[in-house]
Amino acid sequence: MTDISQLVRRCFAAYSTRDRTALEAVIGDPFSFTSPYDDHIDRNTYFERCWANAERIKGHRIERLFAQGDEAFALYEVELISGEKFRNTEFFRVKDGKLAAVEVYFGEVPGRTPQR
C-alpha cells in the first residue's frame, strides 16, 4: 500500500522547491483537482493553471496531516515570497500509488478578521 502521507509531503515539497518533475511523479493520470476556482479539472489543466503559483511560494508548513487508507486531509500554512501567509486545507485521494484527486478549501489570512 502507498504511504499517502509521504505523497502529500512530496507534493508540498515540490511546490516549495519549484520541482515540477517531482510533482509530476506523484500525480496520477487520470487526475482531478477541485478548488473554489477549479471544478474537477484534469491533470494537464491543473499544471497549466496551478503550477505557475510555485513561483510565488516560499514554503509550506503542515500543521495537521491525517491519513487513513487511500485518503488524507492536510491543514497547512503557506508563506509566499512576499511574506504574506495564509492557511488552506486539502483532501487527497490515492489510486495506484499516485495522487488521483485533490480538493482544496481556502482559509483566511492569519490575523485578518473574517469577512461576513
Listing every helix as H and every strand as E from the N terminus to the C terminus, the arrangement reads HHEEHEEEE
Order of strands across the widest beta sheet? 2-1-6-5-4-3
Which shape, going by the Cα principal axes? globular
Give the uncertain stretches in residue-range form.
none
Q: Major sheet, described briefly?
A: 6 strands, mixed
What is the name of the CATH class? Alpha Beta
Structural class per helix/strand content?
alpha+beta
Mean pLDDT: 92
> What is the tally of beta strands?
6
Radius of gyration: 14 Å
**Cα-to-Cα separation, first versus last residue:** 43 Å
Overview of the structural elements:
The chain is α+β, with helices and mostly antiparallel strands and 116 residues long. It has three helices and six strands. The chain has one domain: Nuclear Transport Factor 2, Chain: A (Roll), CATH 3.10.450.50. A six-stranded mixed beta sheet has the order 2-1-6-5-4-3. α1 packs antiparallel against α2. The termini are far apart. The model has no long low-confidence stretch (mean pLDDT 92).
Q: Secondary-structure map with pairings?
A:
Elements: H1 4-17, H2 20-26, E1 27-35, E2 38-41, H3 43-50, E3 57-68, E4 71-80, E5 85-95, E6 98-106
Parallel strand pairs: 1-6
Antiparallel strand pairs: 1-2, 3-4, 4-5, 5-6
Q: Which key phrases capture this entry?
A:
116 residues; alpha+beta; Nuclear Transport Factor 2, Chain: A; 6-stranded mixed β-sheet; 3 helices; 6 strands; 25% helix
